[in-house]
Amino acid sequence: MKREGVSKVVLKAMGIFGGVQVLNILCSLIRNKLVAMWIGPAGVGLFGIFNQALEMLNTATNLGVRNSSVRDISQAVEKRDSSMISRIITVVRRWSLWLGLGGALITMAIAPLLSRLTFGDFNHIWHYVALSAAVLFMALTNGEYAVLQGLSKLKKLARVTVSGTLGGLLISIPMFYFLREDSVLPSIIVYALCVMAAALFTKDKEFPKAKVTSRETVSMGADFIKLGVFMTLGSFVAMLASYIFVSWLNITSGKETVGFYQAGYTLVDKYAGLVFVALGYEYYPRLARVAGSSMRLRVFVSNQINLSFMVLTPCLLAFILLRSHLVWLLYSKEFLVILTYISWGVVGTVLRATSWCFSFVMLAKGDGKIFLITESLDAVIGLTLNIVCFSLWGVDGLGFAYIAWFACYTIIVGVVYFRVYHLTISIKCLRNLVATLLVCIAAVLAMQHSLWPVAAAIFIIATPFCLYQAFRSWKK
To answer: In terms of pTM, does the model score above 0.85?
Structure first.
C-alpha cells in the first residue's frame, strides 16, 4: 500500500470512529451531567473509583488478548488463509470466555482487599463482588472487538459500539434519578452488559466456528497469550499506578477532590484524546501486517504522526477556547476549578500523540519485554509526578504533571524506536510537533490571561491550514 493510499484509509477510519467517539462523548456528556447534577462531586468520585477498579481488573485478568490477538488475526488476513483465520477466531473467543470467568472469580476473592485499600474499611466488599460480573462481560466483549478489528471490519465494530453505548445510557438514566448514589455501581454493570450483548448479538459470521480441541486452543493461543502477558503486566502496572493515586487522593483529600481529578482526567485523556481511539483501530492492524519491513514501518509511522497533528491541532485549540463551556456542560459550575489543569493537560496531549505512534511499533513487532519495561517506567514516572505536583500546586499541578509525564514517555519510547529498532521519522514530523506545541501553548497562555480574542485568532489561522493539509492527503 502506497503512502497516499494509507492516508486515505486512515482518514476514512478516522471518519468512522470519529463519529462513534462523538456519539460516545454525547452519551458521556449526558451521563456525567446527570451524575454531577443528581449525585454531585461525590458521585463523580465514586463513578471514577469503580470504573478505575474495573479497568484495572479487566487489564490484569484479560492477559492482553484484546490487543495481542489482533496482531495474529491481522497477519492471518494478510496471508489470506481462511482456514487459519477461522481457527484463530475460535481460539480467541474461547480464551476470552476462560479469562472472563477467571477474572470474575479473582475479583470476588480480592474484594475485601480492594475495599480496605480504596475506602479504608470493609463496608464495600459486596460492591466489588458485584463488579465481578462486569469483569466477565468486558472479557467477552473484548474478544469480539479483537475479531472485528483484526478483520478490519471497522463499520461493523462501530455499529456494535454505538448500540452498546446507547443501550447502557438509556437504562442508566432512570437508575441515576431514582437510586442516586446507590445507582453508581449498578449503572456500570448494566453498561458492561449492554455492550457485551450488542457484541455477541452481531458477532461476525463470515468465518464459521472451527473444530479446535482444548489442547489445540492452548497451543494456538500460546503466541498471543505470551505477548499478552507482557502487555498485561505493562498495562496493569499503569492501571495500578493510576489506582494507587486515586486511592491516595481519596484518603488524603476526599471524594470531592477525586471527582475533580477524574473530571479533568476524563476531559483531557478521554475527550481530548478521542482522535487516538479513532485512528488506533486502523493503525495497529496495519502496522502488524508490515512489522517485518523497516521501510514500510517508517513510512506508516511518519504518515500517522503527521495525520494525527493535522486532526488534533484544530480539536485541541477548540477545546482550549471552549474549556469553560465544556466543563459547565459536562459537569457543573463546581468543576470550574479544573480549568488550569485541563488547559495544560491539552499541551501534554500533543506529546502523547507522538509517543502513541511510536509505542504501537513495539506491539506490532511482538516485543513484549520491551513494552513491559517502557510501560513500567512510564507508570512510576506518572505516579510520582502526580503526587509531587498535586502536593505542591493542588489540582492545577496535575496539568503540569501531565505535560512532564508524556515528555518523559516520549523520550523513553523514542529511544526504543530510534536506537533499538533503528527506525527514523521524516523532518516534517518534527516540524509539525514543534508547531503544534507552540500554537497550543500560545492559546493556553492567552486564555490564562483572559485574552480570548488572541486564542480565537490562533484557532482561526491554524484550522484552515490543517484542514487543507488533510484534504491534500485525502486527494493524493
So the answer is: no
